[in-house]
Design goal:
CATH architecture: 3-Layer(aba) Sandwich
InterPro entries: NAD(P)-bd_dom_sf, Sc_DH/Rdtase_CS, SDR_fam
Pfam family, one: adh_short_C2
Distance between the termini: 42 Å
Radius of gyration: 18 Å
Bound molecules: NADP nicotinamide-adenine-dinucleotide phosphate
Family: Belongs to the short-chain dehydrogenases/reductases (SDR) family.
CATH topology: Rossmann fold
Largest sheet: 7 strands, parallel
Protein name: SDR family oxidoreductase
Number of helices: 7
CATH class: Alpha Beta
Length: 258
């Protein structure tokens, strides 16, 4: 049951989070899970209007929105500053905003496009982590979750730039986990195909066929990833850091021989 269905919110964790790219899809589901446990949340996204609608759905008493592009340093600074102003703290960060603008053989990959993918998927995550560390986490502790992808932990034909960037996020997770310990735990979640606008082209018109490849018999939904992220941002995972949790409906089980 979501917090909204639950009626007036009585739970208050006293904690605050930033979730990037959270006006819909996985980011929205993560924000919803955090609000349900009583966190204050700042969500980001490029489109002011849809971000505003998401804030209203999640509850403007607990949630603020800061519009902008994840890779823009002015937006990054504004998101962290607004969170500190509104909530006085930023315990948790979910680096979720990501892009995958190219599909095709890596032999033809335009380096300019690859640079752009790295800027949005990796360098923005690094920048948000640096800012939240300096604004709050270094002194008070907290946790970070990076939304990677199975494309970052296996070969990902035709989405090479995306796969390389998600692999870099996995390593960024290790670097941050090492440097920010013991106060801040840093983990990643690596989903397979989750039914969102982002992945629509991978299953639209052939969902049953796509789902048949998954031992769990279905594609992912945003709540599958949100559950993992929420766990990694909770005290239930207090001794877990530097890990990448694959959330894939068992599709990796198909990788063996025989
Ligand atoms: N869906 C999957 O199958 C899947 C699998 C593995 C990993 N992932 C990862 O999960 C993350 C979220 O994907 P999703 O499937 O939830 O996508 P989605 O449903 O398309 O939602 C993306 C969200 O991020 C925002 N956004 C997009 N680009 C942004 C940018 N440059 N700066 C700031 N906000 C941005 C979007 O709002 P605006 O358009 O208004 O900016 C939207 O709120 C991505 O990092 C993706 O790589 C997804």
């Amino acid at each position: 049951m979501t917090a909204v269905e639950n009626g007036p919110r009585t739970r208050d964790s006293g904690k605050a989070a930033i979730v990037t790219g959270a006006s819909r899809g996985i980011g929205y589901a993560v924000a919803e899970a955090l609000v349900a446990r009583g966190d204050r949340v700042c969500i980001t996204g490029r489109t002011e209007e849809t971000l505003k609608e998401a804030v209203e759905r999640l509850g403007a008493d607990r949630v603020i929105g800061v519009a902008g592009k994840a890779h823009d340093p002015a937006h990054q600074a504004a998101a962290v500053e607004r969170t500190m102003e509104a909530f006085g703290r930023v315990d948790h960060l979910v680096n979720n905003a990501g892009t995958n603008p190219v599909f095709g053989p890596i032999a033809d990959l335009d380096p300019a496009v690859a640079r752009k993918v790295f800027e949005t998927n990796v360098l923005s995550a690094l920048a948000f982590a640096q800012l939240t560390w300096k604004a709050w986490q270094k002194e008070h502790g907290g946790a970070i979750v990076n939304i990677a992808s199975v494309a970052g932990v296996s070969a990902s034909p035709f989405i090479g730039a995306y796969g390389m960037s998600k692999a870099a996020m996995v390593n960024l997770t290790l670097q941050l986990a090492h440097e920010f310990s013991p106060g801040v735990r840093v983990n990643a979640v690596a989903p397979a195909v989750v039914k969102t606008k982002f992945a629509q082209a991978l299953y639209e018109g052939r969902e049953a066929e796509a789902a048949a490849a998954y031992p769990m018999g279905r594609l992912g939904v945003p709540e599958d990833v949100a559950g993992a992220a929420e766990f990694l941002l909770s005290d239930r995972s207090a001794w877990i850091t530097g890990q990448t949790l694959v959330v894939d409906g068992g599709i990796f089980l198909n990788a063996g021989v025989g």
